[in-house]
Write a structure and sequence with these properties.
CATH architecture of the largest domain: 3-Layer(aba) Sandwich
Number of strands: 5
Largest sheet: 5 strands, parallel
Distance between the termini: 40 Å
Radius of gyration: 17 Å
Mean pLDDT: 89
CATH topology of the largest domain: Rossmann fold
Strand content: 15-25%
Oligomer: single chain
Strand order of the largest sheet: 3-2-1-4-5
CATH superfamily of the largest domain: HUPs
Structural class: alpha/beta
CATH class of the largest domain: Alpha Beta
Helix content: 25-40%
Bound molecules: 4'-phosphopantetheine
Shape: globular
Protein backbone atom coordinates (compact mmCIF):
# COMPACT_ATOMS: atom_id res chain seq x y z
CA UNK A 1 0.00 0.00 0.00
CA UNK A 2 1.33 3.43 -0.98
CA UNK A 3 0.79 6.45 1.29
CA UNK A 4 1.48 10.07 0.47
CA UNK A 5 2.47 12.41 3.27
CA UNK A 6 1.64 15.88 1.94
CA UNK A 7 2.65 19.17 3.54
CA UNK A 8 4.57 22.41 3.37
CA UNK A 9 7.64 21.16 5.30
CA UNK A 10 9.06 24.68 5.56
CA UNK A 11 11.22 23.30 7.12
CA UNK A 12 10.85 19.61 7.97
CA UNK A 13 10.93 19.08 11.76
CA UNK A 14 11.67 16.10 14.00
CA UNK A 15 7.88 15.81 14.39
CA UNK A 16 7.46 15.32 10.62
CA UNK A 17 10.35 12.86 10.64
CA UNK A 18 8.67 10.88 13.42
CA UNK A 19 5.53 10.50 11.27
CA UNK A 20 7.57 9.57 8.18
CA UNK A 21 9.56 6.93 10.07
CA UNK A 22 6.50 5.36 11.65
CA UNK A 23 4.59 5.58 8.35
CA UNK A 24 7.44 3.80 6.57
CA UNK A 25 6.93 0.82 8.92
CA UNK A 26 3.19 0.70 8.20
CA UNK A 27 3.13 1.19 4.41
CA UNK A 28 5.05 -0.38 1.54
CA UNK A 29 5.99 3.06 0.31
CA UNK A 30 5.65 6.57 1.71
CA UNK A 31 5.86 9.51 -0.69
CA UNK A 32 6.65 12.75 1.12
CA UNK A 33 4.96 15.33 -1.10
CA UNK A 34 5.89 19.01 -0.79
CA UNK A 35 3.10 21.34 -1.91
CA UNK A 36 4.23 23.97 -4.43
CA UNK A 37 2.10 26.77 -3.04
CA UNK A 38 2.32 30.08 -4.95
CA UNK A 39 0.25 31.84 -2.24
CA UNK A 40 2.85 31.41 0.52
CA UNK A 41 6.25 33.08 0.85
CA UNK A 42 8.36 30.25 2.24
CA UNK A 43 11.65 30.36 4.14
CA UNK A 44 13.08 27.66 1.85
CA UNK A 45 12.35 27.15 -1.84
CA UNK A 46 10.75 23.87 -2.96
CA UNK A 47 14.08 22.48 -4.34
CA UNK A 48 15.77 23.33 -1.01
CA UNK A 49 13.02 21.59 0.96
CA UNK A 50 13.21 18.53 -1.30
CA UNK A 51 16.95 18.29 -0.70
CA UNK A 52 16.53 18.75 3.06
CA UNK A 53 13.86 16.03 3.26
CA UNK A 54 15.91 13.67 1.07
CA UNK A 55 18.91 14.09 3.37
CA UNK A 56 16.78 13.61 6.49
CA UNK A 57 15.12 10.43 5.16
CA UNK A 58 18.01 8.82 3.28
CA UNK A 59 18.14 5.97 5.83
CA UNK A 60 14.54 4.98 4.93
CA UNK A 61 14.62 2.87 1.77
CA UNK A 62 10.85 2.95 1.11
CA UNK A 63 10.51 6.74 1.37
CA UNK A 64 10.42 8.91 -1.74
CA UNK A 65 10.40 12.71 -1.80
CA UNK A 66 8.53 14.67 -4.45
CA UNK A 67 6.67 17.95 -5.00
CA UNK A 68 3.20 18.59 -6.35
CA UNK A 69 0.70 21.33 -7.03
CA UNK A 70 -3.08 21.34 -7.20
CA UNK A 71 -5.28 18.99 -5.24
CA UNK A 72 -3.68 16.41 -2.97
CA UNK A 73 -6.21 13.72 -3.98
CA UNK A 74 -5.34 14.23 -7.67
CA UNK A 75 -1.65 13.83 -6.88
CA UNK A 76 -2.44 10.74 -4.76
CA UNK A 77 -4.38 9.20 -7.65
CA UNK A 78 -1.62 10.03 -10.10
CA UNK A 79 0.91 8.26 -7.81
CA UNK A 80 -1.48 5.30 -7.28
CA UNK A 81 -1.54 5.99 -3.54
CA UNK A 82 -4.48 4.73 -1.50
CA UNK A 83 -3.72 6.72 1.64
CA UNK A 84 -3.08 10.31 2.67
CA UNK A 85 -0.99 10.23 5.84
CA UNK A 86 -1.21 13.10 8.35
CA UNK A 87 0.06 13.65 11.88
CA UNK A 88 -2.20 14.82 14.70
CA UNK A 89 -0.67 16.79 17.55
CA UNK A 90 -3.63 18.22 19.41
CA UNK A 91 -7.37 18.88 19.39
CA UNK A 92 -6.70 22.09 17.46
CA UNK A 93 -5.15 20.00 14.65
CA UNK A 94 -8.08 17.61 14.75
CA UNK A 95 -10.65 20.22 13.68
CA UNK A 96 -8.63 21.36 10.68
CA UNK A 97 -7.50 17.87 9.73
CA UNK A 98 -10.98 16.39 9.99
CA UNK A 99 -12.33 19.11 7.70
CA UNK A 100 -9.51 18.43 5.24
CA UNK A 101 -10.13 14.67 5.36
CA UNK A 102 -13.87 15.14 4.78
CA UNK A 103 -13.22 17.57 1.94
CA UNK A 104 -10.82 15.12 0.32
CA UNK A 105 -13.40 12.34 0.70
CA UNK A 106 -15.90 14.43 -1.30
CA UNK A 107 -13.29 14.73 -4.05
CA UNK A 108 -12.28 11.07 -4.10
CA UNK A 109 -13.95 8.18 -2.29
CA UNK A 110 -10.99 5.93 -3.20
CA UNK A 111 -8.49 7.65 -0.94
CA UNK A 112 -8.47 7.24 2.83
CA UNK A 113 -6.84 9.66 5.26
CA UNK A 114 -4.87 7.90 7.99
CA UNK A 115 -3.86 9.89 11.07
CA UNK A 116 -0.92 9.05 13.29
CA UNK A 117 -0.78 10.62 16.73
CA UNK A 118 2.45 12.58 16.86
CA UNK A 119 4.83 11.24 19.51
CA UNK A 120 4.42 13.05 22.82
CA UNK A 121 7.78 14.81 22.74
CA UNK A 122 6.85 16.56 19.48
CA UNK A 123 3.25 17.48 20.35
CA UNK A 124 4.12 21.22 20.53
CA UNK A 125 6.35 21.26 17.47
CA UNK A 126 5.61 22.95 14.15
CA UNK A 127 7.64 24.55 11.34
CA UNK A 128 6.28 27.94 12.46
CA UNK A 129 7.55 27.40 16.03
CA UNK A 130 10.98 26.50 14.64
CA UNK A 131 11.09 29.66 12.49
CA UNK A 132 9.94 31.85 15.37
CA UNK A 133 12.64 30.53 17.72
CA UNK A 134 15.35 30.93 15.06
CA UNK A 135 14.17 34.43 14.11
CA UNK A 136 14.75 35.57 17.69
CA UNK A 137 18.16 33.94 17.94
CA UNK A 138 17.25 30.74 19.81
CA UNK A 139 18.58 27.24 19.19
CA UNK A 140 16.54 24.81 17.10
CA UNK A 141 19.08 21.97 17.33
CA UNK A 142 16.63 19.88 19.35
CA UNK A 143 13.73 20.47 16.93
CA UNK A 144 15.05 19.73 13.43
CA UNK A 145 17.69 17.40 11.94
CA UNK A 146 21.23 18.87 12.34
CA UNK A 147 21.80 19.84 8.67
CA UNK A 148 18.48 21.64 8.54
CA UNK A 149 19.33 23.57 11.73
CA UNK A 150 22.44 24.85 9.94
CA UNK A 151 20.37 25.92 6.92
CA UNK A 152 17.98 27.78 9.23
CA UNK A 153 20.80 29.58 11.06
CA UNK A 154 22.23 30.68 7.71
CA UNK A 155 18.88 32.12 6.67
CA UNK A 156 18.69 34.19 9.84
CA UNK A 157 22.38 35.12 9.70
CA UNK A 158 23.14 33.54 13.05
CA UNK A 159 26.69 32.96 14.18
CA UNK A 160 27.52 29.25 14.15
CA UNK A 161 27.11 27.33 16.43
CA UNK A 162 24.33 28.47 18.74
CA UNK A 163 24.44 27.29 22.35
CA UNK A 164 21.86 24.53 22.82
CA UNK A 165 19.67 24.88 25.90
CA UNK A 166 18.75 21.18 25.93
CA UNK A 167 21.32 18.41 25.75
CA UNK A 168 19.87 15.27 24.20
CA UNK A 169 21.82 12.13 23.48
CA UNK A 170 19.70 11.30 20.44
CA UNK A 171 20.74 14.44 18.56
CA UNK A 172 24.46 14.87 17.82
CA UNK A 173 25.68 18.09 19.43
CA UNK A 174 27.63 20.58 17.32
CA UNK A 175 31.04 21.25 18.83
CA UNK A 176 33.04 22.72 15.94
CA UNK A 177 33.56 26.49 15.86
CA UNK A 178 34.17 26.44 12.11
CA UNK A 179 31.40 27.48 9.74
CA UNK A 180 29.86 24.56 7.84
CA UNK A 181 30.15 24.45 4.04
CA UNK A 182 27.54 26.52 2.16
CA UNK A 183 24.77 24.33 0.72
CA UNK A 184 22.30 27.07 -0.02
CA UNK A 185 22.95 30.75 -0.72
CA UNK A 186 21.87 33.16 2.02
CA UNK A 187 18.35 34.51 1.77
CA UNK A 188 16.97 37.82 2.91
CA UNK A 189 14.23 37.04 5.45
O1 LIG B 1 1.96 21.24 6.11
P1 LIG B 1 0.59 21.81 5.87
O2 LIG B 1 0.70 23.25 5.40
O3 LIG B 1 -0.30 21.66 7.07
O4 LIG B 1 -0.08 20.96 4.68
C1 LIG B 1 -1.37 21.26 4.21
C2 LIG B 1 -1.67 20.50 2.89
C3 LIG B 1 -0.59 20.75 1.89
C4 LIG B 1 -1.75 19.01 3.19
C5 LIG B 1 -3.05 21.00 2.37
O5 LIG B 1 -3.06 22.40 2.35
C6 LIG B 1 -3.37 20.48 0.99
O6 LIG B 1 -3.67 19.31 0.81
N1 LIG B 1 -3.29 21.37 -0.02
C7 LIG B 1 -3.51 21.04 -1.42
C8 LIG B 1 -4.85 21.56 -1.92
C9 LIG B 1 -5.97 20.60 -1.59
O7 LIG B 1 -5.93 19.44 -1.93
N2 LIG B 1 -7.02 21.11 -0.91
C10 LIG B 1 -8.16 20.29 -0.55
C11 LIG B 1 -8.06 19.76 0.87
S1 LIG B 1 -8.56 21.04 2.00
Amino acid sequence: MIAIYPGSFDPITLGHLDIIQRGSRLFDEVIVAVLRNPNKVPLFSVPQRLEQIRLATKHLSNVEVDSFDGLTVNYAQQRKAQVILRGLRAISDFEVELQMAHTNKTLSTQIETVFLATSNEYSFLSSSVVKEIARFGGSVDHLVPPLIALDIYKCYNHKYPIATPIATEAIPQITSTESPPERFPKQEV
